Amino acid sequence: MDIRSVNAGLSVAPQIQPDEMASVAERGFVAIICNRPDGEEAGQPRIDEMRDAAQAAGLAFHHIPVAGGAFPDSAISAFRAVRRGTQGPVLAYCRTGTRSITLETLANPDGIDPSERIKQAAAAGYDLTAISEALH
Protein backbone atom coordinates (compact mmCIF):
# COMPACT_ATOMS: atom_id res chain seq x y z
CA MET A 1 0.00 0.00 0.00
CA ASP A 2 1.17 3.47 -0.86
CA ILE A 3 -0.17 5.40 2.14
CA ARG A 4 0.92 9.04 2.26
CA SER A 5 0.56 11.06 5.45
CA VAL A 6 -0.92 14.52 4.94
CA ASN A 7 -1.35 15.58 8.57
CA ALA A 8 -2.09 13.97 11.94
CA GLY A 9 -5.71 13.34 11.00
CA LEU A 10 -5.46 12.21 7.39
CA SER A 11 -3.48 10.06 5.02
CA VAL A 12 -4.31 9.37 1.38
CA ALA A 13 -3.67 6.42 -0.89
CA PRO A 14 -4.31 5.04 -4.34
CA GLN A 15 -6.86 2.20 -4.53
CA ILE A 16 -6.58 -0.20 -1.62
CA GLN A 17 -7.90 -3.76 -1.58
CA PRO A 18 -10.39 -5.44 0.74
CA ASP A 19 -7.72 -7.80 2.08
CA GLU A 20 -5.63 -4.79 3.19
CA MET A 21 -8.22 -3.45 5.65
CA ALA A 22 -6.81 -5.36 8.64
CA SER A 23 -3.39 -3.85 7.91
CA VAL A 24 -4.96 -0.39 7.66
CA ALA A 25 -6.54 -0.88 11.09
CA GLU A 26 -3.23 -2.17 12.51
CA ARG A 27 -1.59 1.08 11.37
CA GLY A 28 -3.94 2.97 13.67
CA PHE A 29 -6.56 4.26 11.25
CA VAL A 30 -10.13 4.34 12.53
CA ALA A 31 -12.02 5.25 9.35
CA ILE A 32 -11.85 4.94 5.57
CA ILE A 33 -13.19 7.40 3.00
CA CYS A 34 -13.59 6.10 -0.54
CA ASN A 35 -13.72 8.88 -3.14
CA ARG A 36 -14.24 6.62 -6.16
CA PRO A 37 -17.57 6.02 -7.86
CA ASP A 38 -18.49 2.34 -7.75
CA GLY A 39 -17.55 0.63 -11.02
CA GLU A 40 -15.27 3.43 -12.19
CA GLU A 41 -12.97 0.95 -13.91
CA ALA A 42 -12.69 -2.78 -14.52
CA GLY A 43 -11.11 -4.70 -11.66
CA GLN A 44 -11.92 -2.10 -9.03
CA PRO A 45 -13.30 -3.68 -5.83
CA ARG A 46 -17.02 -3.03 -5.37
CA ILE A 47 -18.06 -0.57 -2.66
CA ASP A 48 -19.99 -3.23 -0.75
CA GLU A 49 -16.86 -5.42 -0.64
CA MET A 50 -14.79 -2.51 0.63
CA ARG A 51 -17.39 -1.53 3.23
CA ASP A 52 -17.74 -5.10 4.50
CA ALA A 53 -13.95 -5.56 4.74
CA ALA A 54 -13.52 -2.23 6.52
CA GLN A 55 -16.26 -2.98 9.03
CA ALA A 56 -14.86 -6.48 9.64
CA ALA A 57 -11.53 -4.82 10.50
CA GLY A 58 -13.27 -2.43 12.90
CA LEU A 59 -13.05 0.59 10.61
CA ALA A 60 -15.82 3.07 9.85
CA PHE A 61 -16.42 3.34 6.09
CA HIS A 62 -17.64 6.41 4.21
CA HIS A 63 -18.33 6.63 0.47
CA ILE A 64 -18.04 10.15 -0.95
CA PRO A 65 -17.57 9.62 -4.70
CA VAL A 66 -16.36 12.35 -7.03
CA ALA A 67 -15.53 12.04 -10.72
CA GLY A 68 -14.55 14.01 -13.78
CA GLY A 69 -12.55 16.62 -11.92
CA ALA A 70 -15.74 17.99 -10.33
CA PHE A 71 -15.81 18.66 -6.59
CA PRO A 72 -19.39 19.62 -5.74
CA ASP A 73 -20.08 21.50 -2.52
CA SER A 74 -22.01 18.50 -1.21
CA ALA A 75 -18.95 16.24 -1.50
CA ILE A 76 -16.68 18.87 0.08
CA SER A 77 -19.14 19.33 2.96
CA ALA A 78 -19.51 15.57 3.46
CA PHE A 79 -15.73 15.11 3.51
CA ARG A 80 -15.36 17.95 6.03
CA ALA A 81 -18.08 16.45 8.23
CA VAL A 82 -16.44 13.02 8.29
CA ARG A 83 -13.04 14.48 9.07
CA ARG A 84 -14.36 16.70 11.85
CA GLY A 85 -16.58 13.97 13.26
CA THR A 86 -13.97 11.22 13.40
CA GLN A 87 -11.86 10.75 16.51
CA GLY A 88 -8.63 9.32 15.11
CA PRO A 89 -6.73 9.03 11.85
CA VAL A 90 -8.63 8.69 8.57
CA LEU A 91 -7.38 7.05 5.36
CA ALA A 92 -8.98 8.45 2.19
CA TYR A 93 -8.43 6.75 -1.14
CA CYS A 94 -9.32 7.02 -4.81
CA ARG A 95 -7.61 5.73 -7.96
CA THR A 96 -4.37 7.68 -7.40
CA GLY A 97 -4.98 9.66 -4.20
CA THR A 98 -5.40 12.97 -6.05
CA ARG A 99 -9.16 13.31 -5.56
CA SER A 100 -8.79 12.48 -1.87
CA ILE A 101 -6.07 15.07 -1.22
CA THR A 102 -8.01 17.61 -3.28
CA LEU A 103 -11.13 17.06 -1.17
CA GLU A 104 -9.08 17.44 2.02
CA THR A 105 -7.56 20.66 0.70
CA LEU A 106 -10.91 22.11 -0.38
CA ALA A 107 -12.76 20.96 2.77
CA ASN A 108 -10.10 22.40 5.09
CA PRO A 109 -11.43 20.56 8.15
CA ASP A 110 -8.60 21.87 10.32
CA GLY A 111 -9.09 25.53 9.31
CA ILE A 112 -5.54 26.14 8.10
CA ASP A 113 -4.14 28.76 5.77
CA PRO A 114 -4.42 28.02 2.00
CA SER A 115 -0.64 28.11 1.47
CA GLU A 116 -0.15 25.56 4.26
CA ARG A 117 -2.75 23.27 2.67
CA ILE A 118 -0.87 23.40 -0.64
CA LYS A 119 2.39 22.64 1.22
CA GLN A 120 0.84 19.63 2.98
CA ALA A 121 -0.36 18.26 -0.34
CA ALA A 122 3.08 18.80 -1.90
CA ALA A 123 4.79 17.06 1.03
CA ALA A 124 2.52 14.05 0.36
CA GLY A 125 3.54 14.11 -3.33
CA TYR A 126 0.58 15.95 -4.86
CA ASP A 127 0.83 19.27 -6.73
CA LEU A 128 -2.37 21.21 -6.08
CA THR A 129 -1.16 24.65 -7.08
CA ALA A 130 -3.80 24.65 -9.86
CA ILE A 131 -6.56 24.93 -7.23
CA SER A 132 -4.87 27.54 -5.07
CA GLU A 133 -7.20 30.27 -6.39
CA ALA A 134 -10.22 28.27 -5.22
CA LEU A 135 -8.99 28.07 -1.63
CA HIS A 136 -10.29 30.45 0.99
From TrEMBL:
GO MF entries: hydrolase activity
Segments forming domain Beta-lactamase hydrolase-like protein phosphatase-like: 2-107
Superkingdom assignment: Bacteria
A Pfam family matched in the record: BLH_phosphatase
Full protein name: TIGR01244 family phosphatase
High-level lineage: Bacteria, Pseudomonadati, Pseudomonadota, Alphaproteobacteria, Sphingomonadales
